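The following block was generated as part of the benchmark described in Methods. Ligand: magnesium ion.
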Amino acid sequence: MQTVQIKEYSFVKYIDKVDVLSAIERLAKTITNDYKNNAEPPVLLVTLCGAMPFATYLSQSMELESHWAFVKCSSYGGGMASGDLTMTVEPTVSVKGRDVIVAEDIVDTGKTWLYLYNYCMAEGAKSVKMATLITKIDVYKGTLPIDYVAMELEDKFIVGFGLDYDHCGRHLSHIYHLKESK
Ligand code: IMP
Ligand code: MG
């Protein structure tokens, strides 16, 4: 499918799932190398709902065990805007004393990443790193490093492979961008 309609918007195919999966496999190799000598498996803290497909394939491609946990942060913005953050599901596993890898679908402004980093450190995590499927070129203005990035894309609103517009489009296996977007 080259275009999909979600509510009032048309989206155009942008990144094929084959390229998404290869990018995740490359990232999994790096993460495996960085964590393979650790005494305890890292906690893969998956941000619901968007990071689910990414985290699933990432952990399957990593050649080491990871312990899964889930967290949900929501912003009041809705739609395509970013608003104030609140944690609606707390991490399902304690991160105290653990090496944590936060798995995100996309780090955009970095508000979510900063929030989760501070939360995990306050809970006594041993280390906290970010693994994200996507960042957008020149958008992130934060100071925290984004440790692991699978793909750096242009600044367009995207859906698919977990990413949504108003809860729709997460199931799409390819990544699509908004048609009106430059
Ligand atoms: P941040 O806190 O600004 O970094 O925003 C991260 C969250 O914004 C992501 O987890 C997504 O839910 C959402 N987001 C940012 N850009 C997009 C996009 O292009 N499509 C869909 N969701 C997005
Ligand atoms: Mg999200």
